[in-house]
Design brief:
Blueprint (H helix, E strand, L loop, with lengths): L1 E7 L4 E7 L9 E10 L2 H4 L12 E2 L3 E9 L11 E5 L7 E5 L4 E2 L6 H5 L2 H13 L8 E4 L5 H13 L2 E6 L2 H7 L6 E4 L6 H7 L5 E6 L6 H7 E9 L13 H6 L3 E4 L7 H14 L1 H5 L7 E6 L3 H10 L5 E5 L2
Parallel strand pairs: 9-10, 9-12, 10-11, 12-13, 13-14, 15-16
Antiparallel strand pairs: 1-2, 1-4, 3-5, 3-7, 3-16, 5-6, 6-8
Helix pairs in contact: 3-4, 3-9, 6-7
Length: 324
């Protein structure tokens, strides 16, 4: 079968197409004929560190397709089932998926839309619901809101009944998000938004902030938080991994700072996050309250061009790869 592989150096990543044997599902796994797969900045951009320097490995981490074979012990799925989920090596004609992470695809979703769901929306479930406890009428601040995670956070927050402030350096990207319910659009890439966030909330501050940018805006996120506010750390597109912490503000306002990552989670912990997403967010996707935001879809053969598009940071929402 055809498969894309990725290799990383300290400065960049490269992809190459290979012919490889068809994988066989082991116990607890299913084999999926991939119809579409989502691109993710963390894997494809070297500075994000998810693809370590060394030998090439199968590329892609999430996809959507049809179950074609069942491993031992898999009883909750059947041949032909439409599923989406995390799966290593998703940029291929076939890929293996842990059956516990295989999510039924709602009938209204296209393959492309389904491929854009798993990673970003499970990350959003982790930071807005499981850890962030975002509630109706609370305020959410999302830095770099035009990213895949940022757009999914906006959509989920509106579903929860919250109000959303988003930052982006592009007025065009912010305009695309206003129809999704963005309450306040701040055009900036710098750490200069806390004053606007405080004004929008009547001087109180936001209840939850999401830092998708990195160290350059960390302090400003802290300054934007309300009493008992929560700050999620989920990305660092600026490449800055360190920042000063105002301990007095952290202490006096009883703030909480938490990370959102699956790097060190075991299989059961990842499966638990899937169950939370299925219970809390998937119904809104199934009935149309949330529609996955796919801006670009590239043919399978054009992964290098899709990767280039992601690296250029011109897109809003998700980029997906479509199988022939």
């Amino acid at each position: 079968m055809r498969s894309w592989w990725i290799e990383s150096t300290t400065t960049h990543t490269e992809v190459e197409a290979r012919e490889v044997p068809l994988p066989q599902p082991g116990a607890g796994q299913v084999l999926v004929r991939v119809r579409a797969a989502g691109l993710n900045r963390g894997e494809l951009i070297a500075s994000h560190g998810l693809t370590k320097p060394g030998a090439a490995k199968p590329a892609g981490v999430e996809g959507a397709g049809e179950v074609t074979a069942l491993g031992a012990g898999v009883t909750q799925l059947s041949i032909g089932a439409r599923v989406m989920g995390r799966c290593p090596g998703a940029f291929a004609e076939y890929a293996l998926m842990d059956a516990r992470e295989a999510i039924p695809i709602p009938a209204r979703l296209t393959w492309e839309e389904a491929a854009a769901v798993p990673l970003v929306f499970m990350v959003v479930h982790d930071m807005l619901i499981a850890q962030g406890r975002l509630a109706r009428d609370e305020w959410l601040l999302v830095t770099g809101i035009s990213s895949g995670v940022g757009v999914a956070a906006l959509q989920t927050a509106k579903m929860l009944g919250a109000k959303v402030i988003g930052t982006s350096g592009s007025a065009e990207k912010l305009d695309k998000l206003k129809p999704l319910g963005l309450d306040l659009a701040l055009r900036t890439r710098a750490g200069d938004f806390s004053k606007s966030a405080l004004e929008a909330t009547g001087g109180r501050g936001v209840d939850v902030a999401i830092n998708t940018v990195g160290g350059t805006v960390f302090a400003e996120c802290v300054r934007s938080l309300a009493f008992e506010g929560r700050l999620a750390i989920v990305g660092y597109v600026d490449g800055v991994l360190k920042s000063e912490i105002d301990l007095d503000t952290l202490h006096a306002r009883r703030l909480k700072v938490f990370g959102v990552s699956n790097k060190l989670r075991n299989a059961e912990q990842r499966a638990t996050s899937v169950r939370g997403f299925v219970a809390d967010i998937l119904p809104a996707i199934a009935d149309g309250r949330i529609r996955p935001f796919v801006e670009q879809a590239f043919p399978f053969s054009e992964l290098p061009r899709a990767k280039e598009s992601m690296e250029s940071n011109r897109h809003t929402g998700k980029i997906v790869l479509v199988m022939p």
